[in-house]
């Protein structure tokens, strides 16, 4: 493993759930929650996301630290910052770079997820928040994930990378 590969592989940070929200209807308002159930291949209980193994966007996550960046890029004052409800993501996480979760399994509370892609802004977001939203959110929109193991997620729960299961490869390739 090269030094760069080692740096990429090592994720010592542990994140924290700062906000939880679901969208009961496709274009309806977000509901903020203290806890939610993540369901295998179905997303979060109460969210309108389409269930199924093919839905790569079962859960959306955004970085807490990026809310201030997006607010600044949109020219919002401290009195009117962009909120998690505005960006319509399910989970807001602080303390760990969500992009470091690419290609990994990670645990939030009792549930296990895998990253499925980047959560890009859409035209509807710009329609809701005004001109400049699309460009302000680009690169800061978070990630999408699929639920691999059901479980409860609560505000304050930790977010950490799951260890890679031992494949037994070393036993067959001693050199």
Automatic annotation (TrEMBL):
Signal peptide: none annotated. GO terms for molecular function: catalytic activity; molybdenum ion binding; pyridoxal phosphate binding. SUPFAM superfamilies: PK beta-barrel domain-like. Residues 28-162 form the MOSC domain. Pfam families: MOSC (PF03473). It comes from the Bacteria. InterPro entries: MoCF_Sase_C, MOSC_domain, Pyrv_Knase-like_insert_dom_sf. PANTHER family: METAL-SULFUR CLUSTER BIOSYNTHESIS PROTEINS YUAD-RELATED, MOSC DOMAIN-CONTAINING PROTEIN. This is MOSC domain-containing protein.
